[in-house]
Amino acid sequence: MLINSKSYRTIWSHPDDSTVTQIIDQRMLPHEFIIVDLVAVDDFCLAIRDMYVRGAGLIGATAGFGMYAATLQCRDDNFTADINNFAKALCDTRPTAKNLVWAVERQLTAMAHCQTVQQKREIAFKTATAIADEDALFCKRIGEHGASIIKEISKKKNGEPVNILTHCNAGWLAFVDYGSATAPIYQASNDGIKVHVWVDETRPWLQGARLTAFELKEEKIPHTLIADNTGGHLMQHGLVDLVIVGTDRTTFTGDVANKIGTYLKALAAHDNNIPFYVALPSSTFDWQIEDGVQDIPIEKRSGDEINKITGLAENGEMTTVLIPPENTESANYSFDVTPARLITGLITERGIVKPNREAILQLYPEKKQVDLRG
Ligand code: MRU
Question: Whose C-alpha in 75, 136, 205, 250 is 20 to 30 A from the C-alpha of 281?
Answer without folding.
Answer: 205
